[in-house]
Amino acid sequence: MTSAAGSSSDHSFRVLALDGGGIKGTFAAAVLASFEETLGSPLVDYFDLIAGTSTGGIIALGLGLGLPSKQILDFYETRGPQIFVGARGLLGRVLGPKYDDYSLREALEEVFGDRLLGDAQTRLVIPSLNLETGQVHVFKTAHHERFERDYKERVVDVALATAAAPTYFRTHRLPAGTPLIDGGLWANNPMGAAAVEALGVLEWPKGSVKLLSISCTESPPSIRERSGSGLGLRRWVPHLVDTFMNAQSSGSVGTATLLLGGENVYRISHNVTGDRYKLDGIEGIESLKGLGASVARHEYPNVKVNFLTEKALRFIPKYGAA
């Protein structure tokens, strides 16, 4: 008996979801690199679906193409300081993004070249947002009959689109002219989107799907009301982004847990103070790398038992290269 995805119904499907977070992706990359080094085998071989947003999307694309996790970590260490350098002054930031995306594009082209989304070795889901229509734009491999176009997109374009964080980088336009920005505006934590894809699109049986989620560290809100007047604009503004991101992440965790069952959802994260690491804080790269390795050492036994004991079934796309 086979499911709608053309896979054995008794197979345990495993999903990997990777949060956005700018240079804080170093943490997730370090966790994955440590897992892969200990396992001694490519992680892509063990997951039937990988979802990633923004910096998590870049990692997901790298994993999907079969790049070693260590190479992805090296990308953050060596190219991160070059990408987040030369921030514009205050006036420049008022008139345009904080950074030019030239260094990011150059770094991505060096790693991915002209490879296409259809070259991925597993199913990928990469969220973005269409700035023209205001609707979500999710890049997907050809893992369903309806997905006839995205597999032809250059991986570099997909990466630039999902990572085009407002105020940090300019809007990315696809060759067809579609203006796209960071998928983190609606799915910075893509667990919910990944769970919906697994059950709603691929029609994998509920109870047969396990999801591993890795964050880029988290900073829970710590705003305390000190007067009866509540929080004013001056106190809210510095915390708006963190509050929004934590709220979206909480909702995404809840969605995935409800759809898949709490026993099938496993999230790896680490709470830090709000100002410990920044989206463009290149001074924190080494610390994030060490933190990721430490967390991975603690988490590996459980991750291995639940996600790394059986390889995924071979992914055969509906269109493009097999």
From TrEMBL:
User: Which SUPFAM superfamilies does the UniProt entry name for this protein?
Assistant: FabD/lysophospholipase-like
Motif DGA/G boundaries: 182-184
Q: Where is this motif: GXSXG?
A: 52-56
Q: What GO biological process, any one, is recorded here? A: lipid catabolic process
Any single GO molecular-function term of the entry would be: hydrolase activity
Stored InterPro entries: Acyl_Trfase/lysoPLipase, PNPLA_dom, Teg/CotR/CapV-like
Q: Which residues form the signal peptide?
A: none
Question: Where along the sequence does the record place the motif called GXGXXG?
Answer: 20-25
Q: Where is the PNPLA domain?
A: 16-195
Residues at the catalytic site: S54 (nucleophile), D182 (proton acceptor)
Task: Extract the Gene3D superfamilies matched here.
Answer: Cytosolic phospholipase A2 catalytic domain
Alphabetically ordered keywords of this record: Hydrolase, Lipid degradation, Lipid metabolism
* Protein name in the entry: PNPLA domain-containing protein
Native organism = Ferrithrix thermotolerans DSM 19514
